[in-house]
């Protein structure tokens, strides 16, 4: 293994670590959404089905960011397209 190959592998590992950080945003956003939904259901229990439906849809959309980050990290760690 020469310097270039080690450098590419090291940069791939750093990039994978940075890509996994993308999971922080969806986690915080989903927690905030669940908290606001719980407060809304507490104020108006009759609206619970509509609030839950909207919250779950929003959380599913927010989770895609974290999943894309995980996918990028897996690709960077296990697929080495830049190596000769």
From TrEMBL:
One of its GO terms (cellular component) is proton-transporting ATP synthase complex. The keyword Membrane applies. The record marks 63 as: Reversibly protonated during proton transport. Pfam families: ATP-synt_C. It is a multi-pass membrane protein. Keywords: ATP synthesis, Cell membrane, CF(0), Hydrogen ion transport, Ion transport, Lipid-binding, Membrane, Transmembrane, Transmembrane helix, Transport. Residues 14-76 form the V-ATPase proteolipid subunit C-like domain. One of its GO terms (molecular function) is lipid binding. The chain crosses the membrane at residues 55-79. It is found in: Cell membrane; Membrane. HAMAP family: ATP_synth_c_bact (MF_01396). Key component of the F(0) channel; it plays a direct role in translocation across the membrane. A homomeric c-ring of between 10-14 subunits forms the central stalk rotor element with the F(1) delta and epsilon subunits. Belongs to the ATPase C chain family. This is ATP synthase subunit c. It comes from Acetatifactor muris. The lineage of its organism: Bacteria, Bacillati, Bacillota, Clostridia, Lachnospirales.
